[in-house]
Amino acid sequence: MQNQDYNGWTNRETWQINLWFGQEFIYHLIKEDGVSDAETLKDIIVDYILPEEGDGGSLNGYIKDVIIDAIGEVNWEEIFDHYKSELEFENYNYDSKGNWIGNVSNENGWTP
Q1: What are the backbone dihedrals phi and psi of residue 5, each rounded to the nearest 5 degrees, phi first?
Q2: What is the dihedral angle through the alpha carbons of 51, 57, 61, 67, rounded to the nearest 10 degrees?
Q3: What does each of the 112 residues of the chain score in pLDDT, given as a tens digit?
């Protein structure tokens, strides 16, 4: 894998996965569905991008090879760690000035 920097991400392929799937899909998979590692995250997204032939998948030939090559360049650990750390940050309470005031929760979630 090339070690480039693209818009703050390892490379363009990683940035694109975050762009197209990040806030809505990946965040939900980790927070709500309990995805707990980068490999599982990768498997879910790859299945979404490249469904099996019986699931309506019809990509083949050159286009499929290009997509598979791009998926192989994605830094899945970086994406997973990015959203995991966002969720961990949500678990702490900060005052209006950004000062940490504790780790307090109730049945409705985290409260400031």
Answers
A1: -125, 120
A2: -40
A3: 455 689 999 999 999 999 999 888 998 999 889 999 999 999 999 999 987 765 556 677 888 899 999 999 999 999 999 998 887 766 555 555 555 555 555 555 544 4
Whether the CB-CB separation of 73 and 11 falls below 8 Å is answered with yes
Helix axes 38-49, 76-90, angle to 10 degrees: 110
CA distances to 37, 59, 84, 109 from 15, in Å: 19, 23, 16, 30
Dump strand ranges (E) for 1-112: 93-94, 100-102, 105-106, 109-110
Distance, in Å, from the CA atom of 92 to the CA atom of 104, rounded to the nearest integer, reads 7
Look-up of token digits 């996965």? 17
Distance of alpha carbon 57 from alpha carbon 49, whole angstroms: 9
| Cβ atoms within 10 Å, residue 99 | 8
Take residue 26 and report the two structure tokens written for it.
Answer: 């990946």
